[in-house]
Amino acid sequence: MEGLLTQPFLTALLFGAVTAGVPLLLAGLGEQISEKAGVLNIGIEGMMLFGAYTGFVAAYYSGSFTLGFIGGGIGGAVVSLIVMLLCIRFGLNQIVIGIAVTIGFEGLTALLHYFQFSRTYPRLDAAPLLSLPGLGAIPVIGPGLFNHNAVVYLAVILVGVFTWMFRSTYVGLNLEAAGNKPAALDAAGVSVIKTRALAVLSTGFLAGLGGAYMANVGAGLFVPMMTGGAGFISIVLAMLARGRPVWVLLGAALFGASLSMTTALQVAGVNVPTDVVQMLPFAMVMLVLVIFARHSVLPPALGLPYVRGDRG
């Protein structure tokens, strides 16, 4: 237990928290966009998983992490097209379709991986890291927080961008109206269908990017069903954040720290069963729901299909 306060443990904990939290942050920000527009995107787990697969494949064959991240984002966006078509265009049940998308792409990615790599699990080289000048040299905090892949900094920048967009732009106003008063948005001449479709497409891209980060940076390889419920945790983050991207960031940091505990405890030499440690993030989800869920406010039209021209 003495190793818990050492520099290697604290650095590993911080570094692992960021690495594990970034996929949750990206997917949570994406889910927040969908929920603001009135779409409960339960299929975000499938989007993350397909993004992880396509991102890994793109990086593996091209040798470029940049192309890998782009490929992951595109993969997630492709999956979101299914949700757009079935839930927004045809008005089918969003929960049922989301669950079907998740289960379907769990099987599809496992099948594609088997046919492509058989039972082997090729690895990527270590992803390039970008150390922020000055900050990266701070003991413990520097290597843990300010020495990461560029996608980490992009995710943090997106928190500020989305905060500004939701509060100060017509895009944010339209998203808010699509989730709260879709009939009013329709009456103002703005297409609810188009607004929701673009929101879901953005969600898919961000979720796919998060999945690609998980595979290419976090693990360095693709393993079937490697997301392990991260998409569902992201949904919880988006719901509890109540439209505030900064809260998604704080929640992702909290759950990221829980997810990184396994590696950090191993570095410290603490003998704790892996299964017990891996249970921590899900226990944290239940605890947070008990404490904060009663205060969360969701858009009135969340999960409800909308027919263009309906004023009811």
Characterise this structure:
There is one protein chain. The radius of gyration is 20 Å and the shape is globular. Helix content is 71%, strand content 1%. The protein is mainly α and 312 residues long. The longest helix has 30 residues, at 7-36. A two-stranded antiparallel sheet has the order 1-2. The protein contains 13 helices and 2 strands, in the order ααααβαβαααααααα.
Gist?
The protein has helices at residues 7-36, 44-62, 65-89, 94-117, 141-145, 150-168, 170-180, 182-187, 192-219, 230-241, 245-268, 274-278, 280-292; strands spanning 130-131, 147-148. The chain contains 13 helices and 2 strands; from the N terminus they run ααααβαβαααααααα. A two-stranded antiparallel ribbon has the order 1-2.
**Derived structural class:** mainly alpha
Strand order across the biggest sheet? 1-2
How much of the sequence lies in strands comes to under 5%
Mean pLDDT: 89
Question: How many H/I helices?
Answer: 13
Give me the count of strands. Answer: 2
Helix and strand layout, with pairings?
Elements: H1 7-36, H2 44-62, H3 65-89, H4 94-117, E1 130-131, H5 141-145, E2 147-148, H6 150-168, H7 170-180, H8 182-187, H9 192-219, H10 230-241, H11 245-268, H12 274-278, H13 280-292
Antiparallel strand pairs: 1-2
Jot down its keywords.
2 strands, 71% helix, globular
